[in-house]
Write a structure and sequence with these properties.
- The chain folds into 2 domains: 47 residues; 127 residues.
- It is 22% helix and 30% strand.
- The strands form 2 sheets. The protein has a 5-stranded antiparallel sheet with strand order 2-1-6-9-8, with no helix packed on it. Strands 3-4-5-10-7 form a 5-stranded antiparallel sheet, with no helix packed on it.
- The N terminus is likely disordered.
């Protein structure tokens, strides 16, 4: 009986450990949109779709003068701007920025700006919802080397049964094992 209890305890302990939430392995497309979030900007390059992993995922060239490099990590996104212009400002259209779209719903329900060198870029300009992450820097200025760092919050994890549920399951397995052992012993004595 001790062996049965030990065998049941190991899966229970492993199953109650929280899963690591991550964007690693998530597939995305990235497109530049202006003047709204429905219109792909024709003067921006279209990077290949990518899977989040080690290293820089890609970049978007806007009008041949600004290269926007994006690098996802397990729970964050780093954006850097490389430009040949001295002090440009993004057009003040309703939307001017990048939308990252995943084929599946994302495991994040929010995002926040950890730090940035783009004056005026704050949490109100970042959205992580459904299968999209949007970054809108409309009307803001930048220079060569401008950085934006975003962290994703409220990561939804695969639900893990509560401890009470696991306790009931273990008790049920214990009762079933005990009944089986008793039945086996009765059969052995009858035989």
């Amino acid at each position: 009986m001790k062996l049965y209890s030990a065998c049941l305890a190991v899966p229970v302990l492993l199953a109650t450990m929280p899963a690591s939430a991550t964007l690693l392995g998530e597939g995305f497309s990235a497109r530049y949109y202006v003047p709204n979030s429905s219109t792909i900007y024709p003067n921006a390059s279209v990077p290949a779709d990518f899977v989040v992993g080690a290293g820089v995922e890609g970049s978007i060239d806007v009008e041949g003068v600004t290269d926007i490099v994006f690098d996802f990590d397990a729970l964050s996104l780093a954006i850097s701007f490389n430009t040949v212009l001295s002090s440009p400002t993004w057009n003040a259209a309703a939307f001017n920025g990048i939308i990252f779209t995943s084929a599946t719903p994302l495991d994040v329900s929010g995002a926040f700006v950890v730090n940035t060198t783009m004056s005026g870029f704050d949490n109100s300009r970042v959205t992580a919802s459904g299968n999209q992450i949007t970054l809108n820097w409309q009307g803001l200025g930048y220079v060569d080397g401008t950085q934006i760092n975003i962290a994703f919050s409220d990561v939804r994890q695969t639900p893990v049964p509560e401890l009470a549920t696991w306790a009931m399951m273990v008790a049920g397995f214990g009762l079933a094992g005990g009944a089986l052992r008793t039945r086996t012993r009765r059969i052995a004595l009858a035989g």
